[in-house]
Design goal:
Elements: H1 6-29, H2 36-39, H3 58-87, H4 93-119
Amino acid sequence: MLTNYFPVLLFVLVGLAIGVLPMVMGRLLAPNRPDEEKMSAYECGFEAFGDARMKFDVRYYLIAIIFILFDLEIAFLFPWASVFKDLTLADGSLGLFSFAAMTLFLGIILVGDAYAWAKGALDWE
């Protein structure tokens, strides 16, 4: 029974080795000669100014949320489209139900997009 999990264990061990081994080799083999210039903060070739914790406009976050929304929409749409032909029965009933369900899903997304557009969330000044 545990032999079924051996490929999973091997996959995890190889993944960890690929992630950890280069860092350990770099730490052991790379020269370590820090000085003041190397340890200074680098930001576009000049010293940083101002507060690093500056506030962003709320519209930036709204655009990011809308992007994630459409990204998830595509994540649901591609698998549905790839198996849509297999969902169709002889009488076409399941295919019609699947099409109606995806149309409802896309309609809800479209209403949300129209609402965001009407409220000015997509306007950038």
